[in-house]
Amino acid sequence: MVIAMNETILIVDDEKEIADLIEVYLKNDGYTVYKFYNGMDALHCIEETELDLAIIDVMLPDIDGFQICRKIREKFYYPIIILTAKTEDGDKIMGLTIGADDYITKPFNPLEVTARVKTQLRRYVRYNHLAGKKAAEISEYDIRGLLINKDTHKCYLYGKELQLTPIEFGILWYLCEHQGMVVASEELFEAVWGEKYLNNNNTVMAHIGRLREKMNESAKKPKFIVNIWGVGYTIEK
Fold it and tell me: Fewest Cβ atoms closer than 10 Å to its Cβ: which of 1, 54, 128, 131?
């Protein structure tokens, strides 16, 4: 039996067979799908349609997927999954650095795509619609001018709001929760991504790098997120 998901998903891929295959599997799971074979049509859809997740191929005939990713991140914070060739490791790092939440390498099993979609949507809901919270649970941290609130999903640095993706917010929140402790990359990945850590250190590093960029932090002399080489990351007390 198919359970109606109701979420709306954008697919952008100029390889018609791949886009059509993903569409079939997502529709079978009850998602509403907007599918495009070029970037410009996708950009129009992004501006005019309320979306819950985007699946974007890096290589497109008119504009590349990175441009679409950047455009989405100017206004929206829903999850982005990029599609990339198996040998293009640089594409993975670039995509995560500019705001993508996950990547899938080609060729892939379409069931992997639907599984990744479900994981990203669960995570997005978790960090944006916090339900069932215990009354005594801490919902806000104020650390030397860094203010982060779990209820409002807002984060401010010296009074200026930081526009964080759900993944970035999750990383920063987890580090604040464990202030003064060194959090291993493995622990951080499994806590925020909700998946088993399998040599995904580059993923964690890319998101930490993006966070530091938004916080105007120097990797060599950070004020907040400190890298303890060979161990993990910490926000010092």
Answer: 1
Q: What is the mean pLDDT of the chain?
A: 84
pLDDT digit string, tens, across residues 118-153: 888 877 766 554 433 433 467 888 888 899 998 889
Give the torsion sign (CA, 140, 129, 166, 46). Answer: negative
Ranges in the chain annotated CATH 1.10.10.10:
140-235
What's the pLDDT tens digit per position in 15-33? 999 999 999 999 998 999 9
| 3-class secondary-structure state, position 105 | strand
Residues 6+ apart with CB under 8 A from 26: 9, 11, 33, 113, 114, 117
Q: Which CATH architecture has domain 140-235?
A: Orthogonal Bundle (1.10)
What residues does CATH 3.40.50.2300 cover in the chain? 8-128
Q: What is the pTM of this model?
A: 0.59
